[in-house]
Amino acid sequence: MLTIRREQLVALGELASRDFAQAQIDYLAREYPLRSAALGGAGLKAHVELALEDARQRGIRTVGAVALWIELRFQFGNALQRSPERQWAFKILEHPALPDYVKLGLVRDRLTAQTGGRPVVSFDPMSSN
Questions:
Q1: Over its length of 129 residues, how does the chain's per-residue pLDDT go in tens digits?
Q2: 121 CB-near residues (< 8 Å, 6+ apart)
Q3: The pTM is what?
Q4: How many CB atoms within 10 Å of residue 55?
């Protein structure tokens, strides 16, 4: 009989978490190359780590929902401030009965409907770019 100790389970969970975080960093770098380059590796890592903690605090637990939350924060800002639908989105995210993947799917659909799925970028008139 195989016995797995609690310490081994914790170690496996930590490894899976690191792999998941790195996969999200790689995804953002591929899908949003300009913004990712501007943030750099350390910035991308920080974004993912903050988004993971925020997801945990909001009760977002399933892998797909967490990945979507990371991407939505990347597209629309950490507080979804680049979307006019921000208040609506947070009402949905706070809904007590909906599963996390349903909430995030609804939020994604509503937020990206106005942008046609294109990334939202901040405009800085003082920038030379």
A1: 766 666 655 555 555 578 889 999 999 999 999 999 999 999 999 999 999 999 999 999 999 999 999 999 999 999 999 888 999 999 999 999 999 999 999 999 999 887 776 656 655 556 554
A2: 35
A3: 0.80
A4: 21
**Distance, CA of 115 to CA of 16 (rounded, Å):** 33
Q: Could you tell me the two tokens for 86?
A: 């921000």
Residue 109 one-letter amino acid: D
The position carrying tokens 């996969």 is 23
Q: Looking at this protein, which amino acid is placed at residue 40?
A: G
